Hints:
The protein has about 240 residues and is mostly helical.
Amino acid sequence: MLSRRHLLTGATSLAASAAIPRAWAQAPSGPxxxxxxxxxxxxxxxxxxxxxxxxxxxxxxxxxxNNLNAALSQNGDWAKMPLHxxxxxxxxxxxxxxxxxxxxxxxxxxHTMFWQIMGGSGGEPSGxxxxxxxRDLGGFQKFQADFNTAGERQFGSGWVFVTVSRExxxxxxxxxxxxxxxxxxxRVLMGNDVWEHAYYLKYQNRRPDYLKxxxxxxxxxxxxxxxxSAKAGTLTI
Length: 237
């Protein structure tokens, strides 16, 4: 039979161990936060499943925000800087935190943009955005094909983006990992995440299928607003 002392010791140890995960789960406080999705996770069904949206936003994106705040916790001056300016000045950052801010700051910026441009019904752009796609990217069909091909060819993890200049000129670029054109002083009109966590539950290794399906969930009104903001000089991330 167990003695009273053994029972008390065991209960104390269990209570202590149960408290550890709760402490670990506390997110570091800091200047950046994870905004909620601008729509319910099932909004992009059947093209992007709700479980992927929940995990992608609530786990992956949340981790980038938490890690970014942790990296900035000992760098008060940098923590006061807007994210797009911080990413444009990576080379000036202390070497001890530069990689952490590159990966997690880039991840935060990329995903913030990503959620904003989805939740729509696809189709094609209209108005000025359609005109500049025709002018700079050879028309919508060619743009789609070139964008998808760039995404397919991105080796390993990364992103395919459309950048937009202050003058409104568009270009397709790819970046590895969580790098972003913001690091080059450019602005991002739109982009697709080709990390496997963005599509693997539904598409497994079929990245081309995911790239093609993604067009069905774009919100062209929101992308058009981003284009107008870029020309006005107010687009940040």
